[in-house]
Structures are given as structure tokens and as C-alpha cells.
Amino acid sequence: MKMQSMVLLTFLAFLVQTSLFPWLVPSAFSDRLLPHFTFVLILYAALYRSRHAALLLGAGFGLLQDIVFRGHLLGLHAYAMGLIAYLIGLLLGGRRLTMLSALAVVAIGSLLYDIAVYYVYDVFRFTAEPLAWALQHHIFPSLFLQLAFALAVYIPIRRAFEGNPRAKPTASA
Amino acid sequence: MFKHLRNRRLFVLMVSFILFIAVIGFSISSKAGLTTPEKFLRDTTGYVQQWFYKPAGYIAGLFQAVGDLRKVYEENDRLRMTAAAYARDKVEYNAIRQENERLQEKLKFTEEQKKIYDYNYLIAQVVAVSPDAYNRTLTINLGAREGIRERMAVISEKGMIGYVSKVSELTSTVMPITSLNSEESGISATVLGKQNQSFGILSGYNSESQRILMTKIAADDPIKKDDIVITSGLGNVFPRGMVIGTVESIQDSDIGLTRIASIKLSADFDHLSEVFVVQTSGTAE
Questions:
Q1: Contacts of A137 (CB under 8 A, 6+ apart)
Q2: Partners of residue B177 in chain A, C-beta under 8 Å
Q3: Are A30 and B271 in contact (CB under 8 A)?
Q4: For residue B245, how many other CB atoms are within 10 A of its CB?
Q5: Between these two residues, A43 and B222, which has the higher pLDDT value?
Q6: What is the three-class DSSP state of B127?
Q7: Terminus-to-terminus CA distance in chain A, angstroms?
């Protein structure tokens, strides 16, 4: 799959998580189940494509989220997504992973991302709640949502993202 | 060679970290509007997002409508009562308004003073909701082209949602009062029916208890439990009379000179599809 199609696919995930998904969550859970589907795809890109692609996608889509939902801070999601995806690509990219270990990596990545976001907001005093509460209130419930999405798209995304990125377009099926 | 590469990587990491801190620091202190590339990116994304949000909301609404069918009778009865009360109040309102206009003429109010409470309500469609837990901003499909300005109040039919925080040409961002920290949410509030005696300042939403605090209430304030808290409009930043919520409990503040009320917000923040932007005459051009 070419980089352009990966960007398009990730953008589709961004649209689903911001505009479609809020309607699917029951209203009692709307601030507890927060989708990060773009980040799941970016982590898959780190595992099955390359860390550089993951860095670019992470920084790009993080910045998109930062700008479109411009609130207190700018650049937080770009940095957190880019850095975490790059690190995971650096440590585990290109290795043969079983499906369960790939899901575990997605879980660890999402947790790291959520905790990093929490701490940045905590440092700048935009939240007063303790981390234990944040974990219990939305980070763990959202983690299961992320994992369910990761499991659902695992096979098609792996097929799409894998394959030699340096191969000529005609060579890739 | 490998060591050299590692060092370079570390160097890039440090530089990007410094850049990150600088950008965050800049974005917190900056009160400036958006730059052109930012506006372009927001408007194009918002344009695509509305294709998703609206149909999804319509389908979700359809299912909800089937579920709500039984409640319709009760709601109808309640609305009939409200309509009767409204008809009664309307007569009184007209009389008081005419009296008010006559007095304003006599007291030689300027044109600007007369129009200060003339509000215009613009209906806006929500097109996207932020997936960030600490920054639950909404994107709406009205922008500078339709006359939206920063700091305009945004309400739903139940109560106040927040205010417009950023504006681009075709879309704008709504900052909900639930995402404000204690320094940002300084909205002056009062109690419905006791507008002249009651005063407090909203400060900080507590996500854990899901209540917003109203602080700096004087000791002799007549506020009590179940009162309806509204914006006071003092300071002319927010329009007056927007419903915020109901008082749930009142206690003394830490120092003991003033009191603090815990307020349950009346607006419903999830599954929002339409909101109203309140255009005040001072901000409309």
C-alpha cells in the first residue's frame, strides 16, 4: 500500500472517531469511551511499515487533531503520537509478532499516550483530578475500545501496511 | 557509526522536546486569532466531517425516537401546561416591555444602551466532537462568514454549553464549560428571580463529581438549594439570563467570609446535534 492510501485510511479513521463514533456511544459513557482509532492505525504503521512513516503519520494527524479541536494547548497530540509511535517502531518495528503481542503493543502504546496527555494537562493545570481517577474513569474503558478496534482491523490493516515499502508500485499487488 | 547515529537521534529528540515546550507555552499565552493555514485546515476538515456527523445523528435519532414514543404523551401534557403558563406570561411581558420602552425614552437611553439586551440566536449544527478527555471541544458549522465572533455564548435548549473559543471562516470551535479550568471559567452568575440580590462567579468544573462551583457568594445572599443559576451578564462578556444549572448544595468557603455553591449543570453535553450561538448586539456587525 502506498503512503498516500495510508494517509487516506488514517484520515477516514479520524473522521470516524470524531464525527461518527460519538453517536454510537451510549450517552452515559460519552466521556468515558474516547476513541483513538487514528493512533491505533499509526501504531500498526510503526509495527508493519516503518518507524519513519509512523513518525510522519503521528505528527501529522496529531497536529490535525490539535488544530481542528484547538483548545488550551497546541502541539500536544502531535508530539505525543509522533514520539510514542516512533519509539515503538524503533523497538519493535519489522519484527515478526503474533497477533496477541501486536495487540499488547497497541495496548501499551495507547496507555502511554493517554498517560502522557494526562500529565501534560496536569502540569499546565487544566485538570485537577488525580491520575488514579483518570485511569479508572476514561483511560481503561477507552483502552478496551482501542483494543476492540485494533482486533477488528488487525488482518486487513496488516495486509495493507505490510509489503516492501521500497517496492515499485507495479510490483506491489 | 552506530554511536554517532544514536547521538544524533538523542539530539533531535532534545531539540524537538524544547520545540514542543515552546509551542505549548506559546499556545497557552497566545490570545491571537488563527493563522490562515490553520483556518484552511479546520474549514476543509469540518466540511468533510459534516457528511459523517449529520447522517449518523439522524440514524441514531431515529432509533431514539422509537424508544421515546411512550414518553410523548407525558411530554405533551407537560408542554400544554408550559404553553398555558407562557400565554399568561406573554400578556404581562408585553405590558412590562412597553412600560420599559416608555421609561427608556423618558430617561433618554442611547441607541446602544437600548440594544444591549437584544439577542439574536443562530442555529448551528455540530459537525465533530473532540476525542480528548480534557479538551472536549465541539466544532460547529458556522464561522466568521455568518457573523460568529470569539467569546459568544453557546447554548442548547436546556442550558448553557460554553462559548466560542476559535473562529475560522466556515467553522468555529466551542469550548464547553466542563473543559474550563478554574482560571478560565470566570463567568459571573446570579439566581433566577433574585437577579438583584444574588451574585457569584463560576469557577472550575469538577469532572469527578460532575458539578461546577459558584464561588464568592456573599454571606447574606438569599441563594438556596434548587435555585436556578443563570448568567448575570455583568461585564458584558456573556449575555444575561442563560440557564447554567440548579444549586445542589451550599457551604462556607475555606476562609469563611464567602460561600460556595455546588451546581448541577442543566445542559446535556452528549449527542448534541444542534446548538444556538447567542449573538449580542455589541458583538454583531
A1: A32, A129, B207, B208
A2: none
A3: yes
A4: 25
A5: A43
A6: strand
A7: 8
pLDDT for B81-135, tens place per residue? 999 999 999 999 999 989 988 888 888 877 777 777 778 899 999 999 999 988 8
Strand partners, B245: B229, B265
| ipTM of the complex in this document | 0.85
How much of chain B is in helix, strand and coil states, percent to nearest 5? 40, 25, 35
Is residue A37 a contact partner of residue A17, using CB atoms and an 8 Å limit?
yes
SS3 label, residue A154: helix
Percentage of residues of chain B with pLDDT beyond 90: 28
pLDDT tens-place string over residues A55-109:
999 999 999 999 999 888 888 999 999 999 999 999 998 788 899 999 999 999 9
**Residue A15 at interface with chain B, using a CB cutoff of 8 Å:** yes
A169 residue type, one letter: P
Using the Cβ of A156 and the Cβ atoms of chain B, whether some distance falls under 8 Å is answered with no
Within B131-229, residue ranges assigned H as helices are none
| CA distance, residue A44 to nearest chain B CA (Å) | 20
C-alpha grid cell, residue B44: 476543509
Q: Which residues contact B136 (CB under 8 A, 6 or more apart)?
A: A31, B129, B130, B176, B178, B179, B269
Classify burial at B113, counting beta carbons within 10 Å of its beta carbon; exposed 0-12, middle 13-18, buried 19 or more: exposed
Q: Distance between CA atoms of A118 and A5, rounded to whole angstroms?
A: 32
Backbone dihedral angles phi then psi of residue A128, each to the nearest 5 degrees:
-115, -5
Residue A38's identity, in one-letter code, is T
User: How far does A62 lie from chain B, in Å, by closest CA?
Assistant: 11
Give Dmax over CA atoms of chain A in angstroms: 54
Report the residue from A68, A72, A134 with minimal CB separation from B28. Answer: A72
- Rounded CA separation B76/B23 (Å): 53
pTM: 0.85
Q: State whether residue B140 is helix, strand or coil.
A: strand
Cβ B174 vs Cβ B164: under 8 Å: yes
Grid coordinates representing A108 are 501499551
Rounded to an integer, what distance in angstroms lies between the CA atom of residue B53 and that of residue B130? 12
With CA atoms as reference, the chain B residue closest to A25 would be B271
Cell numbers linked to B259: 460561600
Contacts of B253 (CB under 8 A, 6+ apart): B215, B259, B260
